[in-house]
Amino acid sequence: MLESAKQLIRKYNVPGPRYTSYPTVPYWKNDALSPEEWVETFHNDNSAAPNISVYIHLPYCESLCTFCGCHKRITKNHEVETPYIDAVLKEWSMYKNYLPFTPNISEIHFGGGTPTFFEPSELKRLTEGILGNQNADFSLQLGFEAHPNNTTDEHLATLYSAGFRRLSLGIQEYSPSVQKAINRIQSFEQVKSVHVKAKEMGYSSISHDLVYGLPKQTLADVIDTIEKTILLMPDRIALYSYAHVPWIKGVGQRGFDEDDMPKDEVKRALYESARERLFDAGYKEIGMDHFALEHDELYHAFSSKTLHRNFMGYTTKTSKTMIGLGMSAISDSWYGFAQNDKSVEGYLQKVNEGILPIFRGHLLSEKDLIIRQHILDIMCHFETVCSDEILTSVKDRLSELIEDKIVKIDGNKVSISDDGFPFIRNCCMAFDDYLFHDKGTVPMFSKTI
């Protein structure tokens, strides 16, 4: 890595949001958002609302991965499955009663936690309960996250028969020493077995989730993981930067020493090495931290500038409405956000009392909506076109990024340079009014690079 690149990484590797939403969660204003206030946001734009995405949070895991920042519940008691699925279906029934339109589901995603903690029959019951009489035709996209160690042939076959064609395998890293540090032990052979069986069944888009910057991770480890991944040629690859936020996630991210963490330009070198090898293998960079082969729909959406980003990540579906079901799930009506109770017990209690289980949210102002779209455009397309007013307000904040040839301004268009992709979050931060005016000293975000 050139010394000039190292200097930029040192300069811009500061805490910053990942911008799955704007405003980001720490700046949400409606801590006591009522179900009535939340439901009212769905009345703002009925013409765009009926096509919706559904995210379902399935929080249970049998063991704790010490790198994980997700809301989860660790247990080996599988008797929790049925009452939890019952509650999710009750929550969905409440939404169908509250929504001012008949929802047409364009995509469903099971996340976690570990969705394959649940029995295949329970996942089938959940899918059928959500879809109701809606057919799982070619335009409906169904996907789920899976742990290779507990994903059975029955899981794959049952979900395939229910219409699922997208599979995301959580791999992170193949190095035994890194796997031990993060308590995520799985062999390449196990991953290969699940991947190959899914392909043979007809899954059309398989993604592998990898993480760089993990404790004890070396350049040799990353190269080995990428080479093994390329042997299987998944359709998509998510190469995430490890978000080290122990002040938020507590003991789960305190399972290793701080000195074990790759820092700054060392960490970035892991990514650059992986990125170069993925390019050589035919992968294209999509948005932030994502790669896809040219046949995959994610690449087509990026090329045609129809790529969308929400709390599920990057998606080919541009529906502005997303309903999040389950403990801690976040919903998005475009005009507002609402998050469910973050404890299993609190979530179950509210749902079983017939109450939408939200506990906080944010109602977007007109300015929020404008900035939200700019940040979304940058995250998805690496560029955005601003009004004179917005450009005036952000130009000074972008000045150092422009001077360092990370950002270019041409007329009213702000775009990321070819060498500026590592700093996309820093560019978005210049548009973030909440972050710009916040002088707080309490840490909230992982570092950007």
Please provide a written account of the structure.
This protein is α/β, with parallel strands linked by helices and 449 residues long. It folds into 2 domains: 1-23 and 365-449, Orthogonal Bundle (Arc Repressor Mutant, subunit A); 27-324, pyruvate-formate lyase- activating enzyme (Alpha-Beta Horseshoe), CATH 3.80.30. It has 17 helices and 19 strands. It has helices at 3-12, 35-40, 81-98, 120-131, 153-161, 176-182, 188-201, 219-232, 246-249, 264-280, 297-303, 344-352, 366-381, 388-395, 399-403, 424-431, 433-437; strands at residues 51-58, 60-61, 73-74, 104-112, 141-146, 166-172, 205-212, 236-241, 284-286, 290-292, 308-310, 313-315, 321-325, 330-332, 336-340, 358-363, 383-385, 407-410, 413-416. The strands form 5 sheets. A 9-stranded mixed beta sheet has the order 9-10-8-7-6-5-4-1-13, sandwiched between helices. A 3-stranded antiparallel beta sheet has the order 14-15-16, with no helix packed on it. A 3-stranded antiparallel beta sheet has the order 17-19-18. Helix 3 packs across helix 12 and helix 4 runs parallel beside helix 5 (153-161). The longest helix has 18 residues, at 81-98.
